[in-house]
Hints:
Blueprint: H1 10-20, H2 42-56, E1 69-71, E2 78-80, E3 85-86, H3 91-102, H4 112-118, H5 131-138, H6 142-166, H7 171-184, H8 193-203, H9 213-228, H10 238-249, E4 259-263, E5 266-270
Antiparallel strand pairs: 1-2, 2-3, 4-5
Helix pairs in contact: 3-6, 6-7, 8-9, 9-10
Organism: Streptomyces aurantiacus
Signal peptide: 1-34
EC number: 3.2.1.132
Amino acid sequence: MHTPRLRSSRRTFLALIGASLVAGPTLAAGSASAAPTGLDDAAKKEIAMKLVSSAENSSLDWRAQYGYIEDIGDGRGYTAGIIGFCSGTGDMLDLVELYTRRKPDNALAGYLPALRGVDGTDSHEGLDPGYPDAWRQASQDQAFEQAQDDERDRVYFNPAVQQGKADGIGTLGQFAYYDAVVMHGNGGDSTSFGSIRGLALERARPPAQGGDEVTYLDAFLDARVWAMKQEAAHEDTSRVDTAQRVFLRNGNLNLDPPLDWQVYGDSFHID
């Protein structure tokens, strides 16, 4: 089950990440951190992928989603792949461009003109009827899987983790940032990640500014729930209320397993 998101264009995200993240260092999207000390630790990152997949796909098997594609009716055209790349928001176009640079002869290369044409819209013009089958065919190629991984990290995962570390929050907080960026993007609107973080900063200080981590994360999750409720499709806030908030109330700031949570009424467990 893929839930509609408020995510802005990836290009907008990259352009505004420094400007939108207030009261913290400017972070370049995709730049590597010195060492994995939080969510970027391999085991913690695997947990993060499973947590997001439980909400986005109702499954912990995130690697089974490379070939996923459908129009979920959220005004962003086709949603596809492990992180929900969208034909209407630019990140799917950039993914296919990256894949084609690495492997010019691929099943999706011929759709690049159509993807450029529908960018910023929910149109399927030039994509139907063959594009979904081409995507699924490409998903059998390890090079396409790697391209999806790389774009996920460069655009969403790395910037969220870096901002979390700059704010002095631990693994759980870094995951809360990542999940928010996945759903909301970081454009200039009032429900983007930067705006959510800004609302939290109005109520509490992060550890990097001398604040208490639990108090700050409570404020961030409150702001996240508010942002989700601004769109009818996000009225179910269980990915926060019965998942991230549960870990926070249990004092599990390091996201140490075993983990038990619920999303949309489904129960999940990680040993």
